[in-house]
Amino acid sequence: MGKEINSQALGEFYKGGRTRTHREWRGLKDTWYDYTRWLYIWKCMMKFMSKPQNIKGFFRYRWMLNYLSTLDFLDRHTEGLRGPQLRIAHKEFDMIVEHMIDSMTNLFSADQHIGGDPEKSKKMVLFDENMMTQIMNGFPNLMCVVPEIPPIYTSSTMAQDGILHYFDVAEEYGVPGDVCPMPAAELGVAIEDDYPKVGCCMVECNTTCDGSMMGNGIEARRFSLPTFQVAVPIRYTDEETKEYAAQEIRNAIKFIEDQTGEKFDWDAYFDRMKTFNGETECFREWLEVSKTDYPQVIGNNVALYRDAYYQVVGGRDRTFLENEQAICKLMYEAYDKKVPVVSEVRHRAILWGVQAQYYSAFPVWLQNCWGIVPLIDMLSLTSTDFYSENDKDQAMYDLADLYAKENMRNRSEGGLAVGVDDLWRFCEEFRADMVIMYEHTRCKSMTGYHGIFEDEARKHNVHLVWVTHGLMDPRIASRQDMRTEVNRYMRTVLQEEPIDPSLEEFDDSNAW
Amino acid sequence: MKDLQHLIFFENLLTEVNNDLVREGRDRGDVCVGTTCFQLPEVVYSLPGVFPVYLRAPRTGSIDMGTYYMTSMTCEFARALLERGLEGGYQFLDCLIAPAACSQMADCIENMERLNVNKKDDFFIQLVDAPMKNDDNAIRHMTNMCRRRILEPLHEKYGIDISDKALKKAVKIHNDVCKAINKIGEYRKEDNPRITGYEFAVICTATFAAPKDLILPYLKETVKELKTREPDEDYAKKYRARVLLCGSEIDDPAYIKDIEDAGANVVFDRYCFGSYPARIPIELNDEEDILFQICRQSVTTNQCPRYMDGATIDNRKKVIDTLAKEYKADGIIVEQMKFCNFWGYERAAMTNFLRDDYGWPVLSLDKPYVAGGQGQLRTRVQAFVESIEIKKINNK
Fold first, then answer.
1. Which end of chain A has fewer CB atoms at under 10 Å, N or C?
2. Is B328 inside any structural domain?
3. Partner residue facing A178 (CB), from B69, B310, B339
4. Total structural domains within chain B
C-alpha cells in the first residue's frame, strides 16, 4: 500500500459482493485528493436529489437506481491510478458526472410523465443516441436532448446488470436474442414507456449500425413525435456520396426549423464549431504524446470522455474545452517529468473494436494487471479534422463528414479500409506491438472482419488478443471471461507473469 | 395437377449458379455480373451484352471457411456466399457489383475482394452505396451511383453500351419478364389456384438466375400452358389455409414446399427473390431522364426494412395488408434469415403491427440459409394452420 503504482494487491478489494471491501490507499497526497473528489461527487448528487422534480424522476424510472453506483463507477475507473493520471481521470469523469446531472435535471424539469414544464419541453429536440449532435450548434435557443443516454448508455456503464430487464422486454416483443443489446435495450425502454416524455420533434439516424437503425423505426412509433431520419451514406468514403450526405443535413436542418419555428443561427454554429475545433486541437496533442515513450492521456482517460464531448456535447459547452486545456497542462507537466502510466511498460496496445459497456474499466485492469498500456481505442479514433468556422456551404459538407464519422460507425461502416487497414497504420504510428481486439459477439458489422483481422495481424507481426464480450449484456461473457482471454494469451503465448497476480482472477460477478 | 412442362428445367437452373443459361449467355460473349440483394435496379446491369446473376449458394454443405472469416454470429447466407466464393464457385463471373445494403453482405463482398476469390485479370468488385429512404434526395443519389459506379465502369472496362437506347432495351426485356411472371402469379388469386406457391417460387427465382432474354421463351410457354391447366380437385384437402409469405432472403423454393406440405398454400411472395417488388414493370415516359426513371421506380417501390423513413416503414405493413387481401390470404408468415439485423427487427415489428393494427393471424419464423426439409418448420406451420382454422370456426 502506498503512493507507487502497483504497491497494493488490487484484486483483494473484491470478495464477491456488490461493493469493494475498502477504498484504495494511494499515499497521503493522492488519497487526500481522491477523497476530496469523492466528497465533491457526493455534493453534486445531493444537490441533484434536493430538487423535487428529480426525486419524482428517481421514483418514476427504474433505471435511475443504476446511478446509486456513481461513486463506485468513479472508483472503478480510477483504480490503481496515481499522480497526473488520477487527476486527469477525475477531471474527465467528474466532468461527465456534472454534465449528466445537468442533463437529467433538465430532462426531468420538462418531463410530462412527472408533471414537468410543457413550455420547456417544446424547446427540446430529441436526437438519437447513435448520432452526432452538431446540427444543434446552430439552434442556440433549442435544447438537444438524447433520451437514450440516461436509461441505457450511461446506465450500462454504471451497473453491469443495470439494463438487463430491458433486453427481456425487447425479446418478449419479438426482437431476436442475437441482435446487438444496445438498440434492443433502447427499444425495451420505449416499449415500457420508460423514457422521459419530452420534446417537440425527433431526429434519428442510421448510425451506428443496421440494428440501431431498425430499433429506431419502432421507437419512433412509441415516441409519437414528428421524426426526421438522417440517412448517412454507408460507403461514406466514396466521394460520390458527399453531395447526397450534405443534402441530408440540409433537409434535417429544415425539418427542425419547420417543427420549432427557429432559424438556423450561423453565428452560433460557427462559434460552437470553433469550440469543437479547439477540442480537436487538444485531442491531437493527447495523441501526439501517446505516440512517445511517455504517454499520459490513455485508456479510460480517453474513451468515455471522448465519446461525450465529440458526439453528445459537440462544441456546445465551452467548459469541456477549458477542461481539456487543463488536461493538456497536466499532461505536458507529467510528460516533462517522464511520469510513467504503469509500473512497468510491457506492451503498447491499441484497443480495437467496440468496448464492453459493462466493463468500461477494462483498460485500467490491463494496465494494473499486465502492464499493457492501452494507448488509444477505436471509438476515440474518429475525426481529427478541423471544420470550417466561416464558410456556410462548406459547413454542410463538414456536418455530413462528422455524421459519417460518428464514434462507432466511423469504423464499422465504410469498409475494410477504415475498419481494418487503418488499425495497422495506427499500430505503426503509436509503435504498438499489441492489439486488444474487442469482439462484441452480436455486432454484425465488425465480426464480419474476424478472419481478415487474423490474417492481417500475422502479416503485420502484431499480437492480436481477442476479448469477447456482449457489449451491455454480461451474461454473454462476464468481466472475468474477458480477463481470462487476456490472461491465457499472456501466459501461454507470451509466457509472462502478471504484475499484480491478485488481479488475474477475482470475483466481481455481483459487483456494480 | 399435370406437371408444368418446364418445371424441371427451371428447377435445374437453380441447382447451380453457373447454370445452363448462364453458360449460354457467357458463350455468346456477354459479360456476367454477379450481384447480391435488390437495392439497385436490376436493369442497370441487364444492358445488351451484359446480364446479372444474383449470387446464391445452392446445395451448401459446410460453411466452415465462411464462418472462420465472418464468425458464427453472422448471416448464414453471407457466409455461404463467401464459402462458395472461396471454393472457386464464382470464377465464371466477370465482375461483382453489389449494393452496400446490409453490413454483413458488404463484409462478405469485401472478404471476397480481399481474399481474391476470382482470378480473372479484368475482374473487379464494386460495392455501391445505396440510399435508405424514399425521397427526392435518395432518387438523385441512386441515379448518380448507378451512373458512376455501375454504368460507367461497365462501359470503361467492357465497352458496354450505356446509352439511353440500350437502357430502354433493357427495360423492355425486363418488363417482358415481369409481365410473364405477373401473369403466372395472378393465378394464385383463384379460389383453387392452378399453380402452387412452390412452382411459382421456382419459376420466379429462376428469373434472377439467368439472362432475361434466354429465359423469356420458357416463361412465355409456361404462361401459355397455364391458360389451360386444370387445377387440383383436392385443393381443399391439401391446403387448409392460404398464406402470404414475407420476409428476408429465400432463394431455395424447398422452403416454400415445406410450408405447403404442412397445409399452407403460399399465395403471395413478398421476400427477397420473390416477385414483389422486383417484378413490377417499369413505366417510362419520354420527358425525363431514363436512368432517373429507373432509379425512381427502384426507390419508390423498395420494400426492404433498411428503408428507414417513417412513411415507408408504415407503408410496408399496408402493402402486406393490401396484398394479403388481394390474394385472399387467411394469414401471414413473416420469416427472417437467422442473424439478419434488418429482418430481425422488422419481423418483430411486422408481427406486432399486422396482428394488432390489421388483425391478421401471423406466424413469425426465423430460418437458416439451408432450410429445406425442416421438421420444426412443418410443426410450426401446422400449428399456425390449425389456429387459423379454429379462428374461422369461432367466427362462424
1. N
2. yes
3. B339
4. 1
